[in-house]
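Q: I have 230 residues here and want to know how they pack in 3D. Can you give me a structure?
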Amino acid sequence: MLIGPQNLAVQVNHVRSRIRLAALAAGRDPASICLIAVSKGKPAESVRAAATAGVTDFGESYVQEANSKLDQLADLPLQWHFIGGIQSNKTRPIADRFHWVHSIDRFSVARRLSEQRAFHAAPLNLCIQVALVPEPTKGGVEPASVPELATAICALPRLKLRGLMCVPPPQPDEAAARGIFARLRSLLEELNASGHDLDTLSMGMSGDFESAIAEGATHVRIGTALFGDR
């Protein structure tokens, strides 16, 4: 699928319509769901075209690529979400330039982000990435370790723990996908019952975001359905 700036607005409207229908089917307010356009691997002009079509939140996975785009798009009031794996030596630009980090799975990385976040900046919003389906090539903390990590992160300054994120592999059907997303929702509910105040479920991508919305997703990360194949 080849999608250029000239028809990106059509794709944005189509995805927003799907989000709206999925939300209404779940008895939810469509406005409660944030569309994160996953722009990794796409040029700055595609991000600008998506922004012109009304998208405000963008997800990046590679620091060097993201830095170049942020420089080129500094005139736009965008929210930037880091959604990829984090190397310890790459935390400073993330702490400096991003509004959200969705892929925290180690306390050491969270501590570095806290230490490197500017005092004058708003707290950096964080989500803990949970490995609901263990995969060697993907990050994420085991569900049983989430409460301890969440408590440790909440003690760090200049950070705000917002919720949980997952990147499950493709599932054979909607019921299986919903089952995984329901597990993440249940884990968030358990954390809140123990005293946390979390409001974010970052789950659902191009192939399964309707299932994620049915299970309570607040942020969906959409790349291919907006920009086409990479």
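Q: Anything worth noting?
A: The two ends are 9 Å apart (CA to CA). The beta strands are 34-38, 57-60, 79-82, 100-104, 124-129, 159-165, 200-202, 219-222.
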